[in-house]
Amino acid sequence: MSITAMVHVSSRNLLLTFGFTVVAVFYYWLQWSSSIPVLGGDHAAYLMMADRLSPFGVHGHEVTQYALDYIYFPPLYPLILGIVGATSAHVVLAHAVTVTFLIAALIWCFLWTHDETRDAFQSFLLTLAFALMPTTFFQSFGILSEPLFLWLTLLAVWLLNRSEFPSSRLYMAASIIGLAAIARTAGVALIAAFAFYLFLHKEKLWLRLVSISVAPILIWNALKWVLDYPSGYVWILTTVAEGKPLRFFLWEKPVNEIHGLWVGWITGFDHTPVMTTIIVATLVGVACLAGAAQRAHSRKFDGIYVFFYFAMLLVWPSTPGAQRFMFVVVPILLIQGLLFVSYLLRRFLSSRLESLGYVYLLVIALVIFPPTGLIFNRLAMAAADSNWKYARSIYWYSGENVKGVLDRNRLQIEAKDRFIVSWQKITQVVGENECIYSVDPTWLMLYANRPASLTPNARTREEFFQKATRCRYVYVASYIHPPYLEFYPREYLNGGRIVFADRIEFGGRESVLGVLIEMPGRNRPGSGIEQDKQG
Fold first, then answer.
1. What's the half-sphere exposure (Cβ side, CA atoms, 13 Å) at 452?
2. pTM of this structure
3. Assuming Cys at both sites, which of 58, 490, 492, 493 could form a disulfide with 461, CB separation 3.0 to 4.6 Å?
């Protein structure tokens, strides 16, 4: 290699390293926070499970035991959090661990793309586009398992698509796929795709390798049985299937899921989509699916996996979390789209025009530029003294730059902070051996450090009290958690004692935020619980 070529390679590597470093520093800075930037979702459940699995947890055994009733996730992600001490007492560390998995996923996205294209700049630009997409930006706020799962998936894809193919790599891929299955239940699609991939390639070690990939999930389910930990996704599927006609599964549900996943794909490009975005992102999606089909036809693992993954989602209750479900497959689809476009250019134009694959990347960049620009504009606005506390809240970045939207975002952030203070107050007025009904018990337990149960869903007062026999208190709030309505079940609690009431003031108006109520007929003299004067 000539000195000029060596200098070129060195400069290129330096530039790429600098680019990755800037992305990593940005996400570590953005998420260097001791708070969870959102209210609702699975973040609290993962932290509660991390407390359960960690010697550093701050929640007592009884609280985490109650929490297990509502935690149905595989254990790998919360186990990692627990081992390194990234528990509910150290949320900033939980953010750092999660961002580390995201950065690792970006690195392996680049490595796999480079192996396929042999073009470092194309690979970096595609990885950078994914890193700056709204779906990645918003996902980075979560204390969720998707970044870990995505990294493990890309690592397995990278291993199985390399040109040389020793048995040791197959064993490593099988082990990684097994870990992915205990990071997210969606990993069963990886296992199925891996088994089919080995079958197509007539691999002699088929049974042994599949057994390795299945072993972690079997061990986890055996441990759940031994530990009397029945929670899992089976009850969700059972609930979806209960009382549904065959037509629902053959037509209605697949159509609903396909629509939800399409919406998840579009909003991954633009969280406030306009018609141009919808059209262009849909066309890019068609190219990506064509690329996935081509890869599957060529017996490539990533192509086979994409179709197994989407097949699984058609029977999964995935629509409400469509963007999260799409996030873990977006970079794979984008790479498959790039390879498909490059293939078409080679076949129908000229090999000399293969660099026109950059046009594909330019289209993606043009689609994500307006929403990404809006996000960074909102980040710049947060530098003002009046907005600085909003920079690390996910709510700050939603919607357009208009006064009504920004006021709504500020109210969401203020309400989130006030709910946390309200839940923390419960610790002072409720005894350790008492539990509280809540429409979102994991979040209340996270901050109140008291056992909590899901508020019974009832149509009448009589039905409510027939079901509500476990807890003495109910936390009634403006906090909405489907299918519960605002302030449910206040209409059933006439005669109950108000322990405290919290209010929020915004824009000169004061509204009730949440009320802790001791249920009628359950007063216990000598309990030491006094009515809050604010009530």
1. 29
2. 0.92
3. 492
